[in-house]
Specification:
The structure is a homodimer. Chain A is mainly alpha-helical. In chain A, about 75% of the residues lie in helices and about 0% in strands. Chain A folds into two domains: about 10-50, Arc Repressor Mutant, subunit A (Orthogonal Bundle), CATH 1.10.10.60; about 55-185, Orthogonal Bundle (Tetracycline Repressor, domain 2), CATH 1.10.357. The first copy, chain A, binds a DNA duplex through helix 2 and helix 3.
Chain lengths: ~190, ~190
Amino acid sequence: MSEKQKTKRLTRLSWIKCAFDTLYEDGIEQVRVERLAKKLKVTKGSFYWHFKDRSELLEALIEYWNEEMTKTVLQNAEMFHGDPQKRIVSTLTYIVSNERTKYDPAVRAWANHDPKAKKYVEKVDKLRLTFLIALFSDAGFDPEESEIRARMLYYYVLGEAYVTRKESRAVRLRRIENKARIFIAPS
Amino acid sequence: MSEKQKTKRLTRLSWIKCAFDTLYEDGIEQVRVERLAKKLKVTKGSFYWHFKDRSELLEALIEYWNEEMTKTVLQNAEMFHGDPQKRIVSTLTYIVSNERTKYDPAVRAWANHDPKAKKYVEKVDKLRLTFLIALFSDAGFDPEESEIRARMLYYYVLGEAYVTRKESRAVRLRRIENKARIFIAPS
DNA sequence: TAAAACAAGTACGTCAGCGTATGGATATTG
DNA sequence: CAATATCCATACGCTGACGTACTTGTTTTA
């Protein structure tokens, strides 16, 4: 019964987070100011104090996602050490476990019809791929082979998110750890 | 200047196809009757003659997609013969080449927030996977390994569609043919 | 504690999109 | 060629969503 936040007054971030959940649940088109207002139990008077208009919210939304995802990748880079092959598995495990990555499909769907969102998605993709490629390099593959394997692995993880969303993380994790070995296996 | 069709009068299918293009270009939320009417250069009077309401169009849309995709898979099954390993590559090539599969991401994005669409997507996924699994079985892998490889391959192809859409088919084809070998390589 | 800054409420105008009703136009068929 | 079935246009009412203008309430801070 007791709300987590005191929720006396809202901040810009309150709206962004609410928008995020709505994006995840219903898609970007349903991220509408009056709808969010209802969810947050205020009127749009609040919204238009924090944002110039709807497009400003959307911009803030994609930038927020970009920052979070960038943090995630960099965090990861510092988190795991030791055996490169094990680091690859750890990284995948981390990706699947991380709450934040669940927003990926929704953001991608959005980016598919919005150039601005698309730019950020491409940025994040690039960052992630760079990171994965380095992992394979560390594991002993030459540059070309590293890129091929990194891409395959990355695309696989993406695709996996589109088909198996009803399955539990535990199941997904077990499978991914197994499959990663195929990607790691020497050519 | 000369229209392909005489376009004197429209049919149900005219609307469905137009809806499909719009779904692809702008997402399901933009599939609106007045918008389609404008595209087809008629008024909604036409639409409401062919369809009871918007939801009937959407239903027809996803059913149409289902039929087309089912046809595509079955066609493929009959098209390629001989060396199972080569058939795997041929199948992938076929998937990427086929005009129809380009609608996949848009349909999936839709399915993500629409249970009815979701049901059909799952149906198509199942059909495709069954087909791919059989391919790997024919190539000599045991049932369990066949499923693992088929899924990996399928997810990879899906994921690939989400990242490299700006690249030409030719480029995608060359890469896929190369990468398929990793999936085919014996464990 | 009064003033300033901050946050939210209220009321309104506008527009796009859905669906209905009804009449007009064009094929098709007897 | 007249009658019927098919297809489309026009006009309307309704709703939800955007954004604006203005007011009201609540914290901070001087």
